[in-house]
Design a protein that fits this description.
It is a single chain. The chain has about 375 residues and is α/β, with parallel strands linked by helices. It has two domains: about 200 residues, Up-down Bundle (Alpha-lytic protease prodomain-like), CATH 1.20.1510.10; about 150 residues, 2-Layer Sandwich (Alpha-Beta Plaits), CATH 3.30.70. The protein is built from ten helices and six strands; from the N terminus they run H-H-H-H-H-H-H-E-E-H-E-H-E-E-H-E. The strands form two sheets. It has a three-stranded mixed beta sheet, with helices on one face. A three-stranded mixed beta sheet has the order 4-5-6, with helices on one face. The longest helix is centred in the middle third of the chain and has 30 residues.
Length: about 375
């Protein structure tokens, strides 16, 4: 079975070969029929080959083993290669807009031959197929660089298709709509490039865990009979294929340290085996006492739409202290809600001091 890196490299090499064939084909025909447009389009295919080369370099560098300076590996390099490719896409869109806008006001009717139309049509078909193939492989192996490279080829096909439509109109009716088509398509490409850039930057900054993945991990942990609840799942992305994180589980407060360690190791092993994710497992003690306070707290929290969940309730009798974790929706004023809940629970049970610990829903599972 081929590794993810092998698939990325093979797909990128196919992209390089196809683009170089198109370069040779278009350059030859462009020189023979004396068409500067076709010759320049051949040069454009060289930048597409460059996208594939960047993807290969990124995949190779990202696959380097961890070292003392980078203990979590180099997986995020793939995101940087994606940014470079997206920059190429945006450059193509801006360049097309720059060239197309003046043609709206000063249309230049070109003289296309039937041969040149056939050349453009063949290039469109090849680039569409290549773009869909590369992007599809990229989505299958979770490679943003391949997806961006495939999108680059796809957008080139769209631009060439617009050129083809304009050429046919010019060939049949002798009028030019190149400027209008070029502006429309370039704006679409620029928007798509910005969207791809936003997705890549989100991965670099750190975005919310996929809800489906979060649910699968929590369901898997809940299969252990000793576990009564799963909370605080946090995953850190160090590349498309490397995620580390932590999670808390609720267990009986009668478990010994040895039993808790054994359970933690079993959970971590299972999650790595199923999802290739390394997690550190912490615990909350299952606390069945002070049900009156727990019920009152639950009733108070139910009055606030912004409170997603509370957990980790524990009473320290010797200190007259109660702590609880609270998840508040990012769209609400966290401090105001916490302050109100503290005032209300303190009013009902003044014997204790209370600490509400900020927790964050990073999985989108409650949305």
């Amino acid at each position: 079975m081929k590794s993810r890196q092998d698939i990325i490299v093979k797909t990128s090499i196919i992209g390089i070969i196809v683009n170089l064939i198109l370069v040779a084909f278009k350059a030859t025909v462009g020189i023979l029929v004396n068409s500067i447009a076709i010759t320049l389009d051949a040069v454009n295919n060289l930048t597409d080959a460059l996208s594939s080369i960047i993807t290969i370099i990124g995949a190779k560098l990202a696959n380097r083993p961890p070292d003392k300076t980078h203990p979590y590996g180099f997986g995020r390099i793939e995101y940087f290669s994606s940014v470079i490719i997206v920059a190429i896409v945006l450059w193509a869109g801006v360049t097309a807009l720059w060239e197309s806008w003046p043609k709206i006001f000063n249309p230049d009717v070109s003289s296309y031959s039937l041969v040149s139309l056939i050349i453009i049509a063949v290039a469109v078909a090849v680039k569409f197929v290549l773009g869909r193939y590369v992007k599809g492989i990229g989505e299958n192996v979770n490679s943003q660089a391949l997806v961006a490279s495939g999108s680059d080829a796809y957008f080139d096909a769209v631009l060439s298709f617009a050129t083809l439509v304009g050429a046919i109109v010019s060939y049949i009716w002798g009028i030019s709509i190149d400027g209008i088509l070029g502006v429309i398509i370039s704006l679409v490409i620029i928007k798509a490039g910005i969207d791809m850039l936003r997705e890549t930057v989100d991965s670099l900054i750190g975005k919310r865990i996929d809800a489906e993945l979060s649910k699968k991990i929590k369901d898997s942990i809940m299969e252990f009979p000793e576990v009564y609840g799963v909370y605080d799942l946090v995953l850190h992305n160090y590349g498309p294929e490397q995620m580390n994180g932590s999670v808390h589980v609720k267990v009986d407060d009668t478990l010994s340290a040895i039993e808790i360690q054994k359970l933690s190791r079993q959970i971590a092993g299972k999650i790595f085996e199923q999802f290739s994710i390394t997690v550190t497992v912490g615990v909350y003690a299952k606390h069945d006492g002070h049900k009156d306070i727990q019920d009152d707290l639950a009733e108070i929290c139910s009055q606030y739409e912004g409170i997603i969940e509370t957990h980790g309730f524990i009473v320290y009798e010797e200190d007259n202290l109660i702590t609880v974790d609270m998840i508040v929706d990012f769209d609400y004023d966290r401090e105001e809600i916490k302050s109100n809940v503290l005032k209300e629970i303190k009013k009902r049970h003044p014997k204790y001091d209370y600490i509400i610990i900020d927790d964050y829903d990073t999985s989108d599972i409650n949305k």
